[in-house]
Amino acid sequence: MANNHAGLPSPTLGDLVLPKLYSLFGIANKDSLYGAVAEFEDGPQLVAAGAKVKEAGYTKLDALSPFPVHGIDDAIGVPRSILGFIVICIAFCGTFAAFLLMWYTGAYSGPQIPGCELVGLCSYPLVIGGKPLFHWVFGLPIMFELSILFAAFASVIGMFALNGLPRMHHPTFNYSGIHRATDDRFMLVVEASDPKFKAEETLELLRSLGAVHAELVEDK
Amino acid sequence: MAGHHHDHAVDSYQLDPGKWSTGRNVLAFIALLSWALLGFGYFNDHERFFQSYLVAFCMGTFIILGATFFVYVQYLTGSAWSVPIRRILENIMVSIPIGALLFIPIAFAGVDDLYKWAKPEAISDALIQAKKAFLNVGGFRLRAGILFALWSIWAFAIWTSSTKQDKTKSIEQMKTSSRWAAPGLLVVCLTGCLAAFEWIMSLDPHWYSTIFGLYCMAGGCVAMWATVTLISLGFRSNGVLANTITVEHYHDLGKWMFALSVFWTYLAASQYLLIWYASIPEETIYYKERMHGSWAWVSVLLPIGRFVVPFALLVGRSAKRNLKVLRIAAIWILFMEFVDMYWMIMPNFHEYAHGFHLHWLDLAALGGVFSVYGLVFWSRFKSNSLVVEGDMRFEQGLHFHQV
Predict the structure, then answer these.
(1) Contact A80 B317 (CB under 8 A)
(2) Is B317 near chain A, with CB under 8 Å?
(3) Which of A153, A97, A107 minimizes the C-alpha distance to A128?
(4) Residue A216 forms beta bridges with which residues?
(5) I need a surface site. Which of A2, A190, B225, B309 has the fewest CB within 10 A?
(6) Domains in chain A, number
(7) Cβ of residue A70 closer than 8 Å to a chain B Cβ
């Protein structure tokens, strides 16, 4: 592929897609450091340690716990999810879609859109019960229900997308005691991409905060 | 939770006697002024007196029924978030007995001024005659008496047990309250709807809507949360419970105002939709009357003021955590509850059939009803704790955090 103006090779499609595929199927991609994982004995310890690590200037933090730990989002500086905003936007799309659907199928009398019969969406103006062909009042239930339906889909699909799910592998699975993160241990992760990350220093900090065990994990 | 760090300065759970007296004096002053004006208004224009008085009485009473409903709900769901504000709700709930006294002018003096079915002309109205078994003055008074008796029995049972718990700090009172709360929920829903049918819907004895009772209850509930928000904010600006009712609790008060505004809209839209769709003259008359003259503007204001404005104001998380926004939203919601009551009641009277006509008695009646309910509410704070400090979930409720 041609070089771009900066003289760097442009990424190929393979460069973009392959790492995702590798991580999806858990295939070792590149042998680089993912970060440091430290193990704590209970939730409050995890929150306290997370807060200290954040105080020390680290920004790329994550926490793994067997159940939701109150206050961990604030402690490690996880920003609020934008899911709510996405949901309300999609919900209003649902309101509008219902409005359009009811108007088009019930009141539109122009030429049919070619191929409309294939999806069962041809306009069919018909006077029922002496009511107008379209009126916002009888559109209300449909607009309401479709807003809810769209909102429900947006929350579920949006939640999966924002969490990067589904995926079959995650680098933190390389931590030796990772199985206890779903049982009785609480893990704090500092990613290597953090500008403050220095392997030994970071491990030392984590140990000094009361971690029962801490180790570096590879991104493979 | 252990390990959490909380900088909770400890509040006094007993209202300072000086502050209590100031509150009582303000309420007593409003009461004296309003009732003097109401007395003057009664002799000046007794029809308008009863009309304004009914609007204010219904608004106040449905707010109390909203509090009653939600006290029961808090017990039955075992909510921790509401513990720091539950005493405010309980004290609103237990001011209901005085409502029986406030109802006396309507039941014994105003009934034939207000209600078409109680006028002598009703004898020639076949539809009213057919409903005579229900719509008669004796039954009207008797049923109101039963309603106030039921509400008072339940209110006192729970309130007494809750204040007893302040001292005993035992789980026994919580169990007692929960046992009263479960049947109470059924009682307050059915009787609240009945009250709406009797006092408001029967103003037009030909018209009926089965959802009308819930519509009034939903309006009362949303106005009740607005009232609780304003009382809490009033406490806060006077340094009372400022560290107990935190922004985490205000956030939930905002959620309730938001959710119940949407619920009110759901009911209002359902009622309108069904009547619009069936298009039966005896049902559509309700909306037709409210499309005349200046009433049409009020009819347009209602969905905007009770749905669009609270929705837009309170939809965001940061808005619900902003006490200034909450204060504005709460004041607006209370104003709209008044507009709604006014819109339901006033067009029934032939002299206002072609448009609304504001009167100083509207304000005097609001002052009269709310100051009397307010004085009873306030009297409960004199010697009782400001919070349900004996509740098992009290600590949990104090340190409650939104997820």
Answers:
(1) yes
(2) yes
(3) A107
(4) A36
(5) A2
(6) 2
(7) yes
Q: For B351-394, what is each residue's pLDDT tens digit?
A: 898 899 999 999 999 999 999 999 999 999 999 999 999 998 88
Same domain, residue pair A148 and A172: no
**pLDDT value at position A28?**
55
Q: Is B274 on the interface with A (CB under 8 A)?
A: no
Q: Which residues of B200-213 are buried (b: 16+ CB within 10 A; e: fewer)?
A: bbbbbbebebebbb
Instruction: Give the gap in angstroms from C-alpha A24 to the nearest C-alpha of chain B.
Output: 30
Mean pLDDT per 10-residue segment, chain A (220 residues): 51 71 61 88 92 92 91 88 93 95 88 85 86 88 94 96 87 90 93 89 92 89
In chain B, residues with a C-beta closer than 8 Å to the C-beta of A42 are 3
Chain A window 125-164: which residues touch B at a Cβ cutoff of 8 Å?
A: 129-131, 137-138, 140-141, 144
Question: Does residue A57 sit in the same domain as residue A127?
Answer: no
- For residue B21, the one-letter residue type is S
Determine, yes or no, domain membership for A153: yes
In this structure, what token pair is assigned to residue B392? 């098992």
Cβ atoms B362, B38 nearer than 8 A: no
Is the CB of A69 inside 8 Å of chain B's CB atoms? no
Amino acid at site A75:
A
| Unique residue bearing structure tokens 């004898």 | B123
DSSP letter assigned to residue B306: I
User: What is the count of structural domains for chain B?
Assistant: 1
Tell me the CA distances in angstroms from B353 to A110, B286, B299, one per residue in order: 44, 11, 14
Q: Is residue B388 part of a domain?
A: no
Cross-chain residue pair A137–B317, CB shorter than 8 Å:
no
Supply the range of the domain harboring residue B219: 17-377
Q: Which of residues 211-270 of B touch A (CB under 8 A)?
A: 266, 269
What element of type H or E holds A186?
A: strand A186-191
| Interface ipTM | 0.75
Residue A19 placed within a domain? no
Contact criterion met (CB < 8 Å) for B273 and A44: no
Region B110-127: what's the mean pLDDT? 92
pLDDT at B145: 96
Of A162, A179, A194, the residue at which a domain comes to its end is: A162
- Full residue range of the structural domain in which residue A177 is found: 24-80+168-219
Is residue A35 within 8 Å of A198, Cβ to Cβ? no
The stretch B232-236 carries a mean pLDDT of 96
Whether B391 and B174 have beta carbons less than 8 Å apart is answered as yes
The residue to which tokens 């009551």 are assigned = B341
Question: Would an 8 Å CB–CB cutoff place B311 in contact with chain A?
Answer: no
Classify residue B232: in a domain, yes or no: yes
- Nearest CA to CA, how far is B81 from chain A (Å)? 15
Residue B403 C-alpha, separation from nearest chain A C-alpha, in angstroms? 7
For residue A187, give how far its alpha carbon lies from the nearest alpha carbon of chain B (Å): 17
Q: Is the residue at B396 inside a domain?
A: no
Q: Which residue of A has its CA nearest to B3?
A: A44
Chain B nearest CA to A201, separation (Å): 26
Domain membership flag for residue A141: yes
Q: Which of B400, B397, B399, B402 is nearest to B87 (CA)?
A: B397
Determine whether the interchain pair B3/A47 forms a contact, defined as Cβ–Cβ distance below 8 Å.
Answer: yes
Instruction: Tally A–B CB contacts below 8 A.
Output: 37
Contact B4 A44 (CB under 8 A): yes
